[in-house]
Each structure stands twice: as C-alpha cells, then as structure tokens.
Amino acid sequence: MQHQYSLVQREEEREMFGLIADQGVGSMPWSPLAAGLVTRPWGDRSTTRAKDNPTTDFAGRPLFLESDKATVDEVEKIAGVHGVSMATVAMAWVLRNARVTSPIVGATKPKHLTDAVAALDLKLSDSEAAALEAPYTPRLPTYFA
C-alpha cells in the first residue's frame, strides 16, 4: 500500500495498518518527512522548499497544524541528543513501525540520501518514540479526491 505517513500525518494507524497486517500487505509511505516540515526547526523558512510549500492540499485541507510545532520541537531536541539531522530522527521514527516496508524517499540532494541511510542505524528508545508521538493531533487525510 502506498500512503501518506509521517510524524504529523498518522491517520493510517487508525485502520489501514491493522488491515494490511492482517492481509500481509506491505506499506510504502510517501512524504515520511512531511514535505520537510520535520527536517528543520519550526518556522525556519530558509530553504526554497520551505518557502514554496503550500499550506493546504488541492481541496483546501490544511497540511500542517499549529499543534505540529510541539512535534517538530521534539524532533529537534532528539536530533541534538543523538548528533544527527532532524530528517534522520523523523525517518528513524517512520522505520520503527513494523508495518513500514520501505518509505519513499524523495531525495533531491545527496544529503537527503545520507540522512535517510543514517536513519537505518538510529534506534530510537521507547521513551523517545513516545515523546515524538505524544503531541500528535488527529487530522483529515490530505491529497485525496
């Protein structure tokens, strides 16, 4: 199954992950870094991507919520503890999910691949994962008709 899944878009956990586990289907999430939201400190709009990113999908549903700030802040904190990029922490969290077969990495720079590969070696503790998950706010899925 190909679906959206990241620290700030976890709606697939409600039903689909249980279904694919039952049916033996793999998961290939797209946007595991939430279009870069979880790869830089909150409010950092210094990259071209950050400046150009839309705030809603084509149906007007918000892509990000103000409550996501707490998640991004936690990613930044854990990245500092481990001495890795925020992208590596966010990808390591996605990879922690046993239902995830392989996330889709939309690399546009060599560093994006380096960060993704580094996530394979970063083992988040249960308390770190819980801290990353705690601020999550349920939302409508985005980018569907």
Describe the structure.
There is one protein chain. By secondary structure, the chain is mainly alpha-helical. It has one domain: NADP-dependent oxidoreductase domain (TIM Barrel, Alpha-Beta Barrel). The protein has 6 helices and 2 strands; from the N terminus they run E-H-E-H-H-H-H-H. A two-stranded parallel ribbon has the order 1-2. Strand 1, helix 1 and strand 2 form a beta-alpha-beta unit. Helix 4 crosses helix 5. The protein is globular, with a radius of gyration of 14 Å.
**Biggest sheet descriptor:** 2 strands, parallel
Output mean pLDDT.
Answer: 91
Instruction: Write down the CATH topology.
Output: TIM Barrel
- Rg: 14 Å
Distance from N terminus to C terminus (CA atoms, Å) equals 17 Å
CATH superfamily: NADP-dependent oxidoreductase domain
Short description:
This protein is 39% helix and 4% strand. The chain has 145 residues and is mostly helical.
List keywords for this structure.
145 residues; mainly alpha; TIM Barrel; two-stranded parallel sheet; 2 strands; 39% helix; globular
Write the SSE topology:
Elements: E1 2-4, H1 16-23, E2 28-30, H2 48-52, H3 68-82, H4 86-96, H5 110-119, H6 126-133
